[in-house]
Amino acid sequence: MGDVVFDIETKNSFAEAGSSRSRDLDISLVGIYVYEADQYLAFRDDELDRLWPYMYSATRLIGYNSKYFDIPLLEKYAPRPLTNIPHLDLLVRIKDSLGHRLKLDDVAKATLNYSKSGHGLQAVEWYKQGEWDKIEKYCLDDVKITREVFEFGLKNKQLFYPDLQGIKPFPVDFTMPEVTEEELELAGQVQMSLL
Predict the structure, then answer these.
(1) Which of 29, 71, 170, 180 has CA atoms 20 to 30 A from the CA of 79?
(2) How far is residue 49 from each of residues 30, 74, 126, 184, measured CA to CA in Å?
(3) Which domain holds residue 7?
(4) CA max distance for the chain
(5) CB-based contacts of 83: which residues, under 8 Å, 6+ apart?
(6) Are 183 and 49 in contact (CB under 8 A)?
(7) Distance between CA atoms of 132 and 81, rounded to whole angstroms?
(8) Distance spanning both ends of the chain, measured CA to CA
(9) Of 52, 41, 29, 46, which Cα lies nearest the Cα of 5?
């Protein structure tokens, strides 16, 4: 399947869930970009059974703040663990490089020269109002931005962020460790057994 970039939107906020754990939220929609098919897809909460084949057959999952937010929440719904699939959380790599976290919107503005089309709390409100088209557009816009930030960082080995002195570059490493043929074969067997 190749790499899959993903993002999720929720039906509720942390305040509404009375928790700070992503697992305590509820998914409204998941957006993905599938490199092998050069295709963006969106899956509503009642369509997640169509999402899992893409996730489980991915060479690598790529997200932003996905290690501690998206993956734990997705695993609440997933038929099998997602932790066996190689995963690149851009925010983790950014924090490793800079020593602190950055909002995706700040990285996008400084690196790509454009902004996100909204924020997650708007998507919660759109869900309550049944405005699925707005949720899907917002989610897939975030997937597109995540993809473009990933590709820029992979190609240029750096991204940019704003600070009080202006726009500053910082190094990033979005490559995955080399794997042996034996590891690839084993990973393929594990993924096939999960389908």
Answers:
(1) 180
(2) 11, 12, 23, 26
(3) 3-194
(4) 52
(5) 71, 75
(6) no
(7) 28
(8) 13
(9) 41
Please report, as a single letter, which amino acid is at residue 160. F
What confidence score (pLDDT) does residue 17 get? 78
Burial string for 61-85 (b: 16+ CB within 10 Å, else e) reads bbbbbbbebbbbbbeeebeeebeeb
Low-confidence ranges of the chain (pLDDT < 50): 183, 190, 194-195
Residue 176 forms beta bridges with which residues? Answer: none
d(CA 10, CA 8): 7
pTM, full prediction:
0.88
DSSP 138-171: HHHHHHHHHHHHHHHHHHHSEEEEEETTEEEEEE
Residue 55 corresponds to which tokens in the numbers above? 């996730």
Gap between the Cα atoms of 8 and 61, Å rounded:
13
What are 10's two structure tokens? 């929720």
Q: What is the predicted pLDDT for the residue at 14?
A: 85
| CA 70 – CA 22 distance, rounded (Å) | 7
Give the sheet arrangement for strand 60-63, strand by strand. Answer: 39-44, 27-34, 3-10, 60-63, 87-89
